[in-house]
Design a protein that fits this description.
This protein is an alpha+beta fold. It is built from seven helices and 13 strands. Strands 1, 2, 3, 4, 5, 6, 7, 8, 9, 10, 11, 12 and 13 form a 13-stranded antiparallel β-sheet that branches.
């Protein structure tokens, strides 16, 4: 079951949308470069490999970037598509298609050459942005009602190559935690459980097919918003996998209107070009 908008959500006073206009958005490349220069990337790459393609950093985003993301998240509350899958998922989300129109700084950060280059150093893979019709390429996830959560899962790649997930903390006035299990795909290494409550500005980076994880339920009068970026090593997807991926996104996340409107728009554009 899916419903649109957060019309009955009352955010805590500390995170109510500001009535003031947002400051000019920071330069994404410059902000990322300023932070990554401070990091010991060779050590972090080793940590990433030792943990089975997983890394958590509590302090990653520059303060001005975190502030801009939080402003964007608040401004998009009316665009949230809510979903409920019994026994697995309850919450809201905003896809990249809405973000492109209403919060373009997020798209700029997603495409930051500095960010992608640094993630390539960690993963050892050549990373590409997801195709333009993938609503999961970058998306905001909202936990704003008691019980909002997502159950144990992998970020399964339907692409021909690997798909890496980057989670960024945006707003966290909640008791929600990211719980995870490392090495579940490696029979030679014991599973290793872990749990973090990643705050605004923090980062989680992992291979989606390797990390089993969940978000624990939100309590009353709590709010949590996270931002997800997806990068791929091969942007090709077989037609039957594309159908499965689209249906999953429409039912469990963004709604049919968000997922399929890009396909409809492309069809109309192609039709206009025909004699």
């Amino acid at each position: 079951m899916s419903t649109h908008a957060e019309d009955d959500v009352v955010a805590p006073a500390s995170i109510q949308p500001s009535s003031m206009a947002a400051q000019a958005a920071p330069n994404a490349d410059r902000a990322v470069a300023g932070k990554t220069r401070e990091l010991d990337t060779p050590r972090l790459r080793k940590d990433f490999a030792d943990q089975g393609a997983f890394l958590y950093l509590e302090d990653f985003l520059a303060p001005e970037v975190t502030a801009q993301l939080a402003h964007s998240a608040r401004s998009l509350l009316d665009e949230v598509n809510r979903n409920y899958l019994p026994g697995h998922k309850q919450g809201g989300s905003v896809s990249r298609h809405t973000i492109d129109t209403l919060a373009p700084f997020i798209a700029e950060l997603y495409r930051s050459k500095e960010l992608i280059g640094w993630l390539e150093q960690l993963s050892g893979d050549k990373l590409q942005v997801s195709p333009a019709d993938d609503p999961h390429a970058y998306a905001l996830y909202y936990y704003t009602r008691p019980g909002d959560h997502i159950g144990w899962h992998y970020d399964t790649s339907y692409y021909d190559g690997r798909r890496y997930t980057l989670l960024l903390g945006v707003i966290d006035d909640s008791s929600c935690r990211l719980e995870y299990e490392l090495h579940t795909r490696n029979p030679d290494v014991p599973d290793q459980p872990g749990s973090v409550q990643y705050p605004p500005g923090s980062l989680v980076f992992f291979d989606g097919d390797k990390l089993r994880h969940r978000i624990t339920p939100a309590g009353a009068n709590e709010m949590r918003v996270s931002l997800t970026f997806e990068y791929v090593t091969d942007p090709n997807m077989r037609p039957w996998r594309r159908f499965i991926s689209n249906m999953k996104d429409a039912i469990a996340y963004f709604g049919f209107r968000q997922v399929f409107r890009q396909m409809t728009s492309r069809g109309k554009t192609a039709g206009k070009g025909r004699a």
